[in-house]
Design goal:
about 375 residues, single chain, 6-stranded antiparallel sheet, alpha+beta
Length: about 375
């Protein structure tokens, strides 16, 4: 009997061990790509490296999903409580179509306790990925969080075709742990497991148009800035280590290394790299946008379709119209901001700003008379 039990346990451990080994290799791959990105100067090759980096990040999430489904514990962990807006931003960064995702938190001071933060990133990323894949390419997916009576409510809304009542009820039963995992979709099966692990409530509801997924976090998983120390293990402090400066100052320091003439700001408070590129800091939620005006053109359905088509084919960044101008934007996440990422984004956008072929594609044909 003991031998039989041992064999069963060993059989269960094989997928988890394999996933952990693959995960370790993927982490090494991402680290190597980071070094290549830092050394690369050619904008075209740099864009290719960014795409590979983002693909590797998605592979890492899939491997972590296999660990979840095998019943293994979290592949990673955090020592400290994590800002809720940073959790949502981290989830956004793991989604293939991340430029379509809009994130907002009603109270920026809210934090997720350390023991749940990593799994919540994974859970939200799976839901965002599902929402982007089952909604129209040109439409936004919104992730918004606010307090409610039970703790904190996260709503992920898309503008897809929606679900019929029967399908929605069946999926909600499985997400709630009744009738097995959310069969038919790997992502929702992972969501169901993670929700049970932390006592979250996840349910699908109808939106107009599309679908909204509501994730309710119980109060025990949430800490405000003032009581975060009680809700999470204390961080290990290094004597003499300086406090992290605000995001705006960190961005200013990086911009200063790229400009011999000093840091120049626009009337709107953006940092100016040159006549074609500016860097905009959004402190809450934390985000850095590298922007370039590409072409002045009137808006219209033809332009919107063209922008959606071209953005879908870009490895990083997006194109959008505002104020009579088509803009290119490459976002840099304020969550765990790295100066090298900002420098690389500037290089990518420099290539886009100089791409006359891209501008030619944006010049629309005049309407036929």
């Amino acid at each position: 009997m003991r031998l039989r039990l041992f064999r069963r346990r060993a059989d269960r451990d094989v997928p988890a061990t394999s996933a952990r080994r693959s995960l370790a290799l993927t982490e090494r791959l991402i680290s190597r790509l980071d070094r290549l990105e830092f050394a690369e100067q050619d904008p075209g090759r740099l864009a290719d490296l960014f795409e590979l980096d983002h693909l590797a990040t998605q592979i890492r999430r899939n491997q972590e999903s296999l660990l979840v489904l095998s019943g293994a514990g979290p592949a990673n962990g955090r020592r400290d409580a994590e800002s809720l807006i940073d959790v949502l931003r981290a989830a956004q960064s793991e989604v293939e179509q991340y430029t379509r995702v809009e994130v907002g938190v009603g109270e920026p001071e809210l934090k997720v306790v350390a023991g749940a933060a990593h799994d919540l990133v994974h859970l939200v990323a799976e839901l965002l990925d599902n929402a982007t894949k089952f909604s129209s390419p040109g439409t936004p997916v919104v992730a918004a969080a606010r307090r409610d009576d039970d703790g904190v409510l996260i709503e992920i809304t898309d503008e897809g075709v929606g679900l019929d009542d029967g399908r929605r009820r069946a999926l909600n039963e499985r997400l709630a742990g009744r009738g097995g995992d959310a069969q038919g979709t790997l992502g929702l099966a992972v969501v169901a497991r993670l929700a049970r692990r932390h006592g979250l409530r996840v349910e699908l509801a109808e939106a107009a148009p599309g679908t909204v997924v509501r994730v309710t976090l119980p109060g025990r998983l949430i800490a405000a800035a003032g009581d975060a120390a009680e809700a999470a293990p204390a961080a290990i402090e290094i004597p003499g280590s300086p406090a992290m400066p605000p995001l705006t100052e960190r961005v200013r320091a990086v911009v200063a290394t790229m400009s011999r003439a000093g840091v120049e700001t626009t009337d709107e408070g953006d940092f100016k790299i040159n006549d074609a590129i500016v860097v905009r800091v959004r402190p809450s939620p934390p985000m850095v946008d590298v922007l370039s005006p590409l072409l002045e053109v009137a808006a219209g359905e033809q332009l919107r379709a063209k922008l959606s088509e071209l953005t879908a084919g870009m490895p990083v960044g997006r194109l959008y119209w505002a104020g009579g101008t088509v803009w290119a934007s490459v976002p840099v996440f304020g969550h765990d901001f790295q100066g090298t990422h900002l420098k690389l984004a500037v290089q990518v956008l420099t290539g886009l700003a100089r791409d006359e072929g891209l501008k030619d594609k944006l010049r629309l044909d005049p309407p036929e008379s």
